[in-house]
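Exam prep: given the inputs below (a chain plus nickel (II) ion), describe the expected output before reading on.
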Amino acid sequence: MAVLEIIKVGHPTLEQKALPVENINSEIVELAKNMVETMHQAPGIGLAAPQVNRSLRLITVDLSVGEHPDQLIIMINPEIVDREGELLGEEGCLSVPGIYENVLRPARIQVRGYDLDGREIVLEAEDLLARVFCHEIDHLEGKLFIDRLSPLKRHLIRNRLKKELSKKKG
Ligand code: NI
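Solution:
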């Protein structure tokens, strides 16, 4: 297993709509495992393949950040099939370092996808877990959480990050 590089806001892959996984081959399994390790090491509670520069519909979620193996969810081609209510809560993103903002998300969702064995998974999620799924599935649509803020706020954040990230590059 390997820790992969997480790309940051401004990288074109983060703005692309990711392609469905057609075949769960060894490459996909390895990518998923590396994503889990990358997410845990970051540390983060969710990661989407575009964040490691792979434009594929694959996400990993683990609210326990590696503490409880039964909480790890690897989902291929995830889809929100039902949503209910609204909840405002703070979000951050490994691709948008240092920014935390309140985002409105469904309070409860039903999400459907496949595990690494190709078995269908249907999950009911609420509160933080629902939020993480919505956030990660947004990544597959080429959308960051800051794209859900007001245009002014988004503009200010993007400008600030552009300056900070270019400073780091030297
Ligand atoms: Ni994110």
